[in-house]
Amino acid sequence: AQRVTQPEKLLSVFKGAPVELKCNYSYSGSPELFWYVQYSRQRLQLLLRHISRESIKGFTADLNKGETSFHLKKPFAQEEDSAMYYCALSGAGGYNKLIFGAGTRLAVHP
Amino acid sequence: KAGVTQTPRYLIKTRGQQVTLSCSPISGHRSVSWYQQTPGQGLQFLFEYFSETQRNKGNFPGRFSGRQFSNSRSEMNVSTLELGDSALYLCASSPGQEGFEQYFGPGTRLTVT
């Protein structure tokens, strides 16, 4: 079964502190992994995907197939990073069929 | 380009009624996917339409159905509404081929009383 687990509902950090939002997945094939973000009163939007191997807004994520993880990291959190973050997987069901985790709310305090 | 639009934005219905939600994708996008978001179950995939054909389907009862028109606009219908159908319904559009990002709409908030 395909599943995405985000163990933390809330992650609270101070500005300038490192951030790591955890994501673990369950999928037997080669998954496509994504991080989506939803800022307050805004639409859900793609932050980054593992195939791009790029850094967006200072965030990076590495796919670790051995640990089946796709953690999102940022070395220095900013207040504007406060948002809801969703890890998502696209697998055997088709590229546009996303399986989402429950989401982690990141709160960055001044 | 204009973003994905959904109408109506808010809807209140009574148990047993049916409802139709509409989604207009970004111009040129041929794929429209629908998701249900609830506090208890999170974001769950309903179905995807591509070139007027249902290409993928999630694990929802047959009361949930959809269709796509030749202009790629999509509608989803829920019949015999239940209290548990209260949710935010999101649609997302993409060009349709693999490797392209999905763009989400603002959602329709459905409340069933």
Give an account of the 3D structure.
The complex is a heterodimer of chains A (110) and B (113). Chain A has 110 residues and is mainly beta. Helices cover 0% and strands 44% of the residues of chain A. Chain A is built from no helices and eleven strands. Chain A has strands at 3-5, 10-14, 19-21, 24-26, 32-38, 45-49, 60-61, 72-74, 83-90, 98-100, 104-109. Chain A is globular. The mean pLDDT of chain A is 91. Chain B has 113 residues and is mainly beta. In chain B, strands 2, 4, 5, 6, 9, 10 and 11 form a seven-stranded mixed β-sheet that branches. In chain B, strands 1-3-8-7 form a four-stranded antiparallel β-sheet, with no helix packed on it. The chains are: A mainly beta (110), B mainly beta (113). Chain A binds chain B through residues 43-46, 49, 51, 86, 93-103, and chain B through 3, 31, 33, 35, 42-45, 48, 50, 55-56, 58, 90, 92, 94, 96-99, 101-107.
The number of distinct β-strands of chain A equals 11
Mean pLDDT of chain A: 91
Helix content of chain A: under 10%
Number of helices in the DSSP assignment of chain B? 0
String of helices and strands of chain B: EEEEEEEEEEE
Give the structural class of chain A: mainly beta
> What share of the residues of chain A does DSSP label as strand, in percent?
35-45%
Question: Can you lay out the helices and strands and say which pair or pack?
Answer:
The complex is a heterodimer of chains A (110) and B (113).
Chain A: E1 3-5, E2 10-14, E3 19-21, E4 24-26, E5 32-38, E6 45-49, E7 60-61, E8 72-74, E9 83-90, E10 98-100, E11 104-109
Parallel strand pairs in A: 2-11
Antiparallel strand pairs in A: 1-4, 3-8, 5-6, 5-9, 7-8, 9-10, 9-11
Chain B: E1 5-7, E2 10-13, E3 19-24, E4 31-38, E5 42-50, E6 53-57, E7 64-68, E8 74-78, E9 87-94, E10 103-104, E11 108-112
Parallel strand pairs in B: 2-11
Antiparallel strand pairs in B: 1-3, 3-8, 4-5, 4-9, 5-6, 7-8, 9-10, 9-11
Summary of the model, kept short:
The complex is a heterodimer of chains A (about 110) and B (about 110). Chain A is mostly beta strands and about 110 residues long. Chain A has strands at about 5, 10-15, 20, 25, 30-40, 45-50, 60, 70-75, 85-90, 100, 105-110.
